[in-house]
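for the writeup, i need someone to sanity check this before i put it in the appendix. the sequnce is what the collaborator sent (i think, or maybe the updated version? ugh). structure was predicted straight from it, no edits. if anything looks off just tell me and ill rerun, i have time this weekend
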Amino acid sequence: MTVVATNPTKIGGPRPPLQGISIRDALDADLPAIVEIYNAAIRGRISTAQLEPVSVEERLPWFRVHSPESHPLWVAEVEGQIAGWLSFQSFLTRAAYRRTAEISVYVNEKFRRGGVGHMLLEKAMTQSPRLEINALVGCIFGHNEPSLRLFERLGFERWGFLPCIARVDDVERDLVIVGRHIPLQA
């Protein structure tokens, strides 16, 4: 599921942008922080259909399928700390969809609303032509309004709606599919 983990208890708009955010390819040593951010999102129940926490060992096969040349996994760092991450996955494995990628974005709670998710998504859009990707797709729970607004601000449109397709803690949840075409450079 593609989302930006958010904190629904926080009220208000974005904080002033964080300074000194750097984005790079994820390293093996980053996986514990990536898993920690993901597990916090699982507990929050707003941004992933995963219902039970995962271990570093469980996420290792997922981590290994990422490649800087085709389906990258990036981390955003602030003052040496992993503030968030973005991953590219195959949207569907059939050949006709090879230029479409599903993206997922998660941000550490203490760095939310500071521009981390925005910067990661912007990088995904600017790097997509190099990756030969001309469409980005995100799958976001319908009640995750902060993520829906973020994607919308970056030009993503609602491409699909699947009502009551997920059940989280006995609550049916809608899934919104957002997408954006990215022109391939000549």
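The two ends are 31 Å apart (CA to CA). The first helix runs from residue 31 to 44.
thx in advance!!
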